[in-house]
């Protein structure tokens, strides 16, 4: 592998600019909205048709019985693999094919893929059909230039990342698709920017907390026990004890933005007493003391805290209330958990992509970690594969917004970095 190889692959990718644009537009025009999970089969067939023409073997995998999977909305995934001329490592590019709802405020057709001033517009342009298209162009350019590469290249298009990834990467990982014996390097082209490598993400713990009371007539509340007042005590104790404790903790992970380097918790919802009536209901509320109040918490924890300490801290505060506050009782139900993931900075895929960024952009990469999470969690925990990063074109802050777009120049740069990484990993 020489510097000439690098110049040649860069100009080859520049020559595919129109193909890259058309591919991104066509992907945007398949409206893979999640929820409910529409057109997954269509996008998998589109991808496999294209990649089979380039010598890949493609497998469509339905995540039977995963959350959301039904005959109406089947969770289809596509895995493409192309063997090289001799044995070696396998490099896998994983992109989710689903996009979030459109929302209000668009001035362009969200599924039109309009090209204007070097930007392609549409829902999923940035998150992450532009990244998927860049990885396909990178792999195709590499294969054309080096048909005798060693190892293997895989490209997957997976479902449901926006709703947890259980019908997508988690399912494939359970089926062995991310076994370290099969795949050695994973790049997820999420929109982190062409000069940034995302090493991992924080953890998350979602739970519903319910306080209990006793129903009675509202004119004699002393004959009942108000679950909403008990919940107020929960919120007080969070304000006085939990939030200050969390604010004092900072992670060494390079989480962006800065505010997310702390431990955080959102109170997602609160419901107490009588259910809300439809907007056209004209009656008055009945006079009742509420016997139940529920909140949903969204606790994002640091890798240094861990899931056990995170849970114990909250349960401890609730148990203190149970001991000290007359009549207090509660139930806690876990909704979901995500374990933090952090790939080492000296892992082979990190060092390779870092060097490729230096070659292509002439600058050192920034290393970041995600404030939320993405499919790396499943590759790490279920697949037990630690050599995984997110690297791809686009601005994360554009994700899920109206008039979402991706810059063509950004996609070309990222495709060059990905192709350069393939040269480093698959050429002897
Ligand atoms: Zn995404």
Automatic annotation (TrEMBL):
<keyword id="KW-0862">Zinc</keyword>
<dbReference type="Pfam" id="PF07687">
    <property type="entry name" value="M20_dimer"/>
</dbReference>
<comment type="similarity">
    <text>Belongs to the peptidase M20A family.</text>
</comment>
<dbReference type="InterPro" id="IPR011650">
    <property type="entry name" value="Peptidase_M20_dimer"/>
</dbReference>
<dbReference type="InterPro" id="IPR036264">
    <property type="entry name" value="Bact_exopeptidase_dim_dom"/>
</dbReference>
<dbReference type="Pfam" id="PF01546">
    <property type="entry name" value="Peptidase_M20"/>
</dbReference>
<dbReference type="InterPro" id="IPR002933">
    <property type="entry name" value="Peptidase_M20"/>
</dbReference>
<dbReference type="InterPro" id="IPR010182">
    <property type="entry name" value="ArgE/DapE"/>
</dbReference>
<keyword id="KW-0378">Hydrolase</keyword>
<feature type="domain" description="Peptidase M20 dimerisation">
    <location>
        <begin position="200"/>
        <end position="321"/>
    </location>
</feature>
<dbReference type="GO" id="GO:0009014">
    <property type="term" value="F:succinyl-diaminopimelate desuccinylase activity"/>
</dbReference>
<keyword id="KW-0479">Metal-binding</keyword>
<keyword id="KW-0170">Cobalt</keyword>
<dbReference type="InterPro" id="IPR050072">
    <property type="entry name" value="Peptidase_M20A"/>
</dbReference>
<dbReference type="GO" id="GO:0046872">
    <property type="term" value="F:metal ion binding"/>
</dbReference>
<protein>
    <submittedName>
        <fullName>Succinyl-diaminopimelate desuccinylase</fullName>
        <ecNumber>3.5.1.18</ecNumber>
    </submittedName>
</protein>
């Amino acid at each position: 592998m020489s510097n000439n190889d690098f110049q040649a692959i860069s100009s080859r990718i520049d020559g595919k600019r129109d193909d890259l644009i058309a591919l991104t537009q066509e992907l945007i025009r398949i409206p893979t909205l999640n929820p409910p999970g529409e057109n997954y089969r269509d996008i998998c067939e589109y991808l496999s048709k294209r990649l089979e023409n380039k010598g890949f073997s493609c497998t469509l995998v339905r995540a039977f019985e995963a959350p959301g999977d039904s005959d109406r909305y089947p969770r289809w995934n596509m895995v493409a693999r192309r063997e090289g001329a001799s044995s070696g490592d396998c490099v896998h590019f994983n992109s989710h094919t689903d996009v979030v709802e459109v929302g209000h405020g668009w001035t362009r057709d969200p599924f039109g893929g309009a090209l204007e001033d070097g930007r392609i517009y549409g829902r999923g342009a940035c998150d992450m059909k532009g990244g998927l298209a860049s990885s396909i162009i990178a792999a195709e350019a590499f294969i054309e230039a080096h048909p005798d590469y060693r190892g293997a290249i895989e490209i997957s298009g997976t479902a449901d990342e926006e709703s947890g990834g259980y019908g997508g990467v988690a399912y494939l990982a359970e089926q062995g698709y991310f076994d370290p014996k099969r795949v050695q390097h994973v790049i997820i082209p999420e929109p982190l920017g062409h000069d940034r490598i995302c090493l991992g993400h924080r953890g998350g713990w979602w739970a519903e907390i319910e306080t209990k009371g006793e129903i009675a007539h509202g004119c004699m509340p002393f004959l009942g026990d108000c679950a909403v007042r008990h919940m107020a005590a929960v919120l007080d104790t969070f304000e006085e004890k939990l939030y200050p404790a969390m604010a004092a903790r900072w992670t060494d992970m390079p989480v962006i933005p800065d505010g997310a380097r702390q431990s955080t918790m959102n109170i997602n919802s609160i419901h107490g007493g009588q259910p809300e009536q439809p907007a056209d209901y004209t009656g008055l509320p009945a006079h009742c003391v509420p016997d139940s109040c529920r909140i949903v918490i969204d606790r994002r924890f640091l890798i240094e805290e861990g899931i056990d300490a995170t849970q114990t801290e909250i349960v401890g505060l609730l148990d203190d209330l149970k001991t000290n506050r007359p009549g207090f009782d509660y139930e806690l139900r876990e909704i979901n958990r995500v374990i933090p993931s952090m790939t080492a900075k000296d892992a082979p895929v990190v060092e390779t992509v870092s060097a490729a960024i230096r070659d292509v952009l002439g600058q050192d990469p920034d290393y970041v970690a995600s404030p939320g999470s993405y499919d790396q969690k499943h590759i790490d925990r279920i697949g037990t594969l630690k050599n995984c990063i997110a690297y791809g074109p686009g601005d994360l802050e554009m994700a899920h917004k109206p008039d979402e777009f991706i810059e063509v120049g950004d996609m070309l740069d990222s495709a060059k970095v990905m192709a350069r990484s393939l040269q480093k990993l698959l050429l002897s």
